[in-house]
Design goal:
Elements: H1 4-29, E1 34-44, E2 48-49, E3 62-72, E4 76-83, H2 84-95, H3 106-131, E5 135-137, E6 141-146, E7 149-150, E8 160-169, E9 174-183, H4 185-203
Antiparallel strand pairs: 1-8, 2-7, 3-4, 3-5, 3-6, 4-9, 8-9
Helix pairs in contact: 1-3, 1-4
Length: 204
């Protein structure tokens, strides 16, 4: 759906935006955290098979999934999915103590909720700045998930998913995650039009 040059520019934009989120997370964790988005794609449909990515990245079948809704002129849902063990690494960095092997409690999920809030609000907020539109956000919902697909009954068939794999590079460990942004058709068109406008300016 995206040409290689559109994808390259979008990846560059996302890496700048996600870098701002990493700065905020570094303050939370009292250590440097680097977030990279090396892989970006825009796909059709309301359902994405996560399992096809497992061999490329990490096993997302036992994961923590956070979701926010955003709206007004630029609308959709944003998801961040972090494998369970990777989530424990991030909680340990931000909370100062890694959760027990027995599982995650409500305090641990609050840490994930705050991490997700920082990443998703920064990322989507910067889209708002890029497009010069006002956005409104919900607070992140966090749940344990056996992730086979990302699906939501509120998404219409003509929505599209912007998919991003990201790595959390910490001073003592590394974690991986996926970010999905489900966009309405109008919002997708706004974003692609802006990318094309930027490409014209670059090539002038």
């Amino acid at each position: 759906m995206l040409s290689s040059i559109q994808k390259d520019l979008l990846t560059e934009i996302l890496n700048v935006n996600i870098g701002k989120a990493a700065s905020s997370l570094s303050e939370m964790a009292n250590q440097k955290i680097i977030l990279n988005v090396p892989t970006v794609d825009l796909q059709n449909g309301t359902e994405i098979d996560v399992l096809v990515f497992n061999n490329k990245t990490a096993d997302f079948r036992n994961s923590i999934m956070s979701t926010i809704r955003f709206g007004k002129n630029f609308t959709g849902n944003a998801y961040i999915i972090i494998p369970h063990d990777d989530a424990k690494e991030l909680i340990g960095a931000c909370a100062g103590a890694k959760p027990d092997d027995d599982g995650l409690d409500n305090d641990d999920l609050d840490v994930i909720r705050e991490i997700s809030n920082v990443i998703l609000n920064t990322l989507i907020g910067e889209f708002g700045n890029l497009l010069d539109v006002k956005l409104e956000f919900s607070f992140p919902d966090v749940e344990f998930a056996i992730v086979n697909t990302v699906e939501n009954s509120d998404l219409s068939e003509d929505m599209h998913f912007l998919t991003m794999f990201t790595s959390f590079l910490l001073s003592e460990s590394k974690a991986k995650g996926m970010i999905f942004v489900a966009l309405s058709t109008d919002s997708e068109t706004m974003l692609i039009d802006k990318i094309n406008e930027m490409l014209v300016e670059i090539n002038e």
